Amino acid sequence: MFLRDGLTFFAGSLSSLFFPPVCPFCDSALPQSDSSVCRACSESIEPVAPPICFQCGLPVPGGAARPPALCGRCLTDPPRYARARYGVRYQGEVRNALVRFKYYGDFHAARALSEMLIETFGRHFEPREFNLIVPVPIHPRRLLQRGFNQTVVMAEKLSAATGIPLDRRSLKKIKDTPPQVGLPRPERIKNLKGSFGVRHPSRITDAKVLIVDDVATTGSTIREAAKTIMRTGAARVDALVLALRIEPGSVGIGKEA
């Protein structure tokens, strides 16, 4: 054991010597190998902070000081999930890193993004709350084009860190929906309606499921995924999303979750 650990340390030292660690967001040199993001990029990351709706997790203006406080939409049209939580704002270096990872296969950024997802989980959830982690799937056509699903990659890291089993196959995308960016909420809902299915219902039945996704704007995708999973017989569904896109003019988006 000690020999193996020593060899691992020696290999890591050689790797750092010939390939000095760099920030995955800006490519600047990192002073310490245990820090995955440089200080400047770390300080530019903006967490999704309260006040937020207790259920959908979206920011609300002038939220109540004492949780649980629900936004107007969750009061009138609650989602099928119990709670959704978001990590950081989809902007700046986080946005650039996710775009490079998602569309250009830049796996250098995957470690830092996964660590942010894991940190967000730790702030809002406990591993004992869940039986399964289910990443939001992409349509097989897009998977063939891209070669991988970035959400699955991050969900694998989360599963390893928490010990919660990962189920990457049960939830499937059965409709190749067009991009959601820039569309009003009614169009997003229309696009996503009936877009998910379940391949292995027995794995979902009576399970406490955590849905994981990379980016969201209004939460329509996780709403539809949660609806599909709950209809299959899950005991409970929660959602964890790495980044929240705040579109111009969407102040108090929790009202329109």
Shape category: globular
CATH class of the largest domain: Alpha Beta
Poorly predicted regions are 1-18
The helix content is 25-40%
The SSE order reads: HHHEHHEHHEHEHEHE
CATH topology of the largest domain: Rossmann fold
Structural class: alpha/beta
Distinct helical segment count: 10
Number of domains: 2
- Spatial strand order of the main sheet: 1-6-5-2
Count of beta strands = 6
Mean pLDDT: 84
What integer value in Å does the Rg equal?
Answer: 19 Å
Q: Between the first and last Cα atoms, what is the distance in angstroms?
A: 51 Å
Query: Beta-strand percentage?
Result: 5-15%
- Sheet bearing the most strands, described? 4 strands, parallel
Known CATH architecture of the largest domain:
3-Layer(aba) Sandwich
What would your notes on this structure say?
- The chain is an alpha/beta fold and 257 residues long.
- It folds into 2 domains: 1-44, no CATH class; 46-256, Rossmann fold (3-Layer(aba) Sandwich).
- The protein is 39% helix and 13% strand.
- The chain contains 10 helices and 6 strands; from the N terminus they run αααβααβααβαβαβαβ.
- The strands form 2 sheets. The chain has a 4-stranded parallel beta sheet with strand order 1-6-5-2, sandwiched between helices.
- The chain starts with a helix and ends in a 13-residue tail after the last strand.
- Residues 1-18 have low confidence and may be disordered.
Structure described in brief:
By secondary structure, the chain is an alpha/beta fold.
